[in-house]
Amino acid sequence: MRDIVGKIDGKIGNDGLLDIATKPSSLNEAPIIIADTTRLDNIGWKPTYDIESGLDHTIDWFRNK
Asked: How far is it, in rounded angstroms, from Cα 40 to Cα 8?
């Protein structure tokens, strides 16, 4: 999430102004979570946007509202 929020921060022109606080992870919290997209791959689903163009599209949508 931090990476995505950082990308949005840079794209809207606030590069570096957003300060994301961190908190220590709890002992039972996974250090990283990775999605298993095997089922999506098996049915032939492909995303319409990559992360960069998806964020650009979403930011443009909000700016036009």
From this structure: 26
- Residue 30 dihedral angles phi and psi, to the nearest 5°: -65, 135
Q: Would you state the structure tokens that stand for residue 25, as one six-digit string?
A: 């992870």
Q: Which residue has the higher pLDDT, 55 or 3?
A: 55
Residues 34 and 23: their CA atoms lie apart, in Å, by 20
CB contact at 8 A, 25 and 31: yes
Asked whether the whole model's pTM tops 0.85, one would answer no
Dihedral, CA atoms, 20, 26, 27, 30, nearest 10 degrees?
Answer: -50
